[in-house]
Structures are given as C-alpha cells and as structure tokens.
Amino acid sequence: MALEACRSCLSCLLIPLALWSIVVNVLLYFPNGNASYATSFQLPNYVWYFEGICFSGVMILLLAVILIALECSVFHQCCQSESCNKTYRSFISIVLALLGVAFSGYSCIIFTLGLIQGPFCNSSNGWDYIFKNTVGGYLTDYSAWSQCTEPANAVEWNIILLSILIALSGLQLIICFLKVAAELKRTLCGTYSVFVQVIEMITERALLWHKN
Predict the structure, then answer these.
(1) Where are the bilayer-spanning segments (predicted)?
(2) What is the C-alpha to C-alpha distance for residues 98 and 59, in angstroms, rounded to an integer?
(3) CB 107 within 8 A of CB 52
(4) If DSSP codes are grouped into helix, strand and coil, which group holds residue 72?
(5) Residue 175 in contact with residue 67, Cβ under 8 Å?
(6) Higher-scoring residue by pLDDT: 15, 8
(7) Distance between start and end Cα atoms, the chain
C-alpha cells in the first residue's frame, strides 16, 4: 500500500535530483572556481563524458516530466476502456523507469570509476593521474594528497563532488527501481482483477445455462 501511495510522488523526486546532478557536474569543470583548467583540457577524462549533465541530468529530467504527464488524468486516452488506458500508461511508465535505471546506473558507474582513478593534477612529475595505480587507496591516504600541487585542493574537490554525484545517481537508481515495482504491481493487480471478473462472468453464465 505504501508503494502504491508513493507511486505518483516518485517521479517528482527525480526532478530535483536531476537538477542537482547538472549543477554539481558543472562544478567539476571549474576547480576552485577557476575556468582555465577546462579551457586547457586539464581535467580528468571521465569529466568529459558529461554523464552528470546528460544522463543523470537532462535525460532523467525528461523522463520525470513524461512520467508525471502519464499520471495526469488529462493525458490522452489511448483506449475506449479506462482499464485498458491505465494498463497502457503503466506499460509506458515501466519502460521509461527502466530507461531511468539504465541512465542513472551508467552515471553511477562512471562517477565511481572517476573517483577510483583520482584527479588529473600537476605534481613533481608533471600532469598525470598520480593516484591511478592505488585503486582508490588514495581516498584514505590523506598525506598523499599534497602531491597534487595544481589545481589547489584538486583531490578534495574531486572526491567531494564525485561522491555527491554518486549519491544523487544512486538515489535516482533506487527511485526508478521503486517506480518499476509500483507500476508492475499496479499492472499485475489490474490484470488479476480483470481475470477474476471474467471468471465470475463465465461462472454466472454457466450457472444460468445449467438452470435453463
């Protein structure tokens, strides 16, 4: 019952998450508010995938808007029967929610890989991914962070923003999964109700035929 009651609000929750994902991803291009690193392409390669802007951002935002439109009573009636129309809407919602799972899941994977790889920064050996061989071990080795001399606070900037993006895309993933579960429950329950009605109608007609 709780899942069914929250079905309509799940799509709305995706909108602020998508907007925040876009904002946080944009911040990755400006370490410490400096735009010169983006113009000289001195940023981690995963940043140029635009996953926070495109996939967990714009694409999730579009899916959320369409899902909200599907839940509105003014949506176009595709069938003469109301039960048929609801089933059609649920089917489209399931497909869109599965796309949301794919988009947010992909973004979460890319953000995680970027966090494990570490920032692209300048050190005594020049510009490189100096933590790429640590397999994420640098995250707890605070003394090693000072090896990145440029951009200033590059490690902290990278870790904080990517962690936020992982959390945002993870929440999107959970919400989309819940959306799929809610719509499947609605569809299956609706199909079961129709099946029961058909069985009852057949039984009543059989009893009438037997009496006659």
Answers:
(1) 12-31, 46-70, 91-116, 159-178
(2) 12
(3) yes
(4) coil
(5) no
(6) 15
(7) 44
